[in-house]
Amino acid sequence: MVHSGLWGEGRVAQFAGSGARMCQMFFVVSAFLMYSSYDRVVIIKNGNVELRDIFYWILKRFIRLIPLFYLSIIVHMLTGGYSRYWLGSQGHVTFSNIISHLLFIHGLFPYYMDSVISVEWYVGDIAILIVMMPLLYKAIHSTSAAISWIVGTNIVLHFGLPYLQELRILPADDLHIWNTYISDFGFWNQLPVMLIGIALYRLMQAIDLESMVNHKKVLSFVIIFLSIVLQYGLIYRGTNVYMLSGFTLWGIAYALWFISQKIYPIWILNNPIVKLLGKYSYAIYLFHFGIFIRYYDKFGFTLSDIRLNAILRMMIVTAESLITGIVLTQYIEKPCVAYISNCIKMVKKCK
Fold first, then answer.
1. What is the three-class DSSP state of 244?
2. What is the residue-averaged pLDDT of the chain?
């Protein structure tokens, strides 16, 4: 919705604009899955995790990212899909920019963070999370510890960001890049949301479903209602909680969704369509904006009504992105990941 850019003004536009906050759902889910993956390694090793185990775990996580991410870089460069808005005064994609993307360190550089694919800042933050996860795992062994980290990082951000925003490292023409990097795309802003994913993993382990046999459905709907109220407030009322960032509150809203579905799944949030989109969401995310939305303006259908036009555009772009995602995932990502993984296994056996 937010990338369609066709909603005009008013409450509908406010709702559509909140689509940008779906990135926080990605961060919650990614941190949840990543923490659980590392937890399995610790369990298998009976707590005796060696440095080589950590190295191979990190390597496997990057292998999952590489095939489609590298392909999206190639496709966007060949089709002129790079973003001059995020390139700022640089004006073009430099060699060092490409290298930073290939090494997954583009999230450390304001000029590079979102300049090639127009959505890759998320991947840059996830790359940092992968490297940090073993350290976070050592620090967080319970829900209460995760909550303490969430509160602590929000306090640091609340008092620290104003000082960073006063700095002027980039040229005046590029302040939109600098401000976005400091207050949004920078890893530190999303860390509390990722910590919510870790807290969610620990909390779900602690939930005793057997003790709520007679109240699952009611409890699930109550929690969903609370999540909707919070999201409504964030979109339309500017809801804030002292020293908790807006990103953190969105993360909490999504965590409530997931908790409700753990207790009692309902069809509107847990159905084949949502599962299909979720399964191929990485490919959809990498290709939908720079390719399909950009080229829809040249080859797509246009209606006079701005809202109907936006809905039509979203449906067509989503369908195209999903089909592309399925093809790329099945015939490029999975074979490449399997091949690289087998090579690593052979190397490990040789050692």
1. strand
2. 90
